[in-house]
Amino acid sequence: MAPPYLYECKSKTYYAQMPAILMHLAREYDYLPQKAETHTLALKSILDCNDVLMEITNFYGMTMWDRESWKQFRSSRLADWMQIFEKTGSKHGLKGDSGFLLGDTISVADIAVTALFGTLTHAFPTLGRDLRTHAPQVAGLCQRVESRKSIKAFLDKQRSTLGNTYCGGQIEASLRQMMD
To answer: Taking a C-beta distance cutoff of 8 angstroms, is the pair 33, 41 a contact?
Structure first.
């Protein structure tokens, strides 16, 4: 229906929906955990990231943020989401400044969480303080993943082109107004 979508050249297949795209790419490039439990947790993490995106954009722009609803969201829902990722990591692999969300090896869950919170905190540095407060191990994970050679090169190029743009349009304008 609309982006994001992925066209797989080998099979000449289109994949829509961010979670399906990530799971396909993770399988193709060996970023899926091998154990059934952690495989399921990787999918859960991706779906949680999708839920956070929906909430932070106020249900994809159904309404724009006002001060009171933003304050409530930031102090409760967003903080809760950050803590959910922190608890998942603490239980399954994050240990201080090392490890990954679901074990000793980077997985699609780490990439998804970094894409979510790394982008969010790059675009809105004040939310970086929130992440370091509510999910310090996740904040460290994002830094470690973003510093990987290929990811760093991609982000440097993207950020030099886009600056600190988050999502554009009225949704971003609404979010930026809340950060002032």
So the answer is: yes
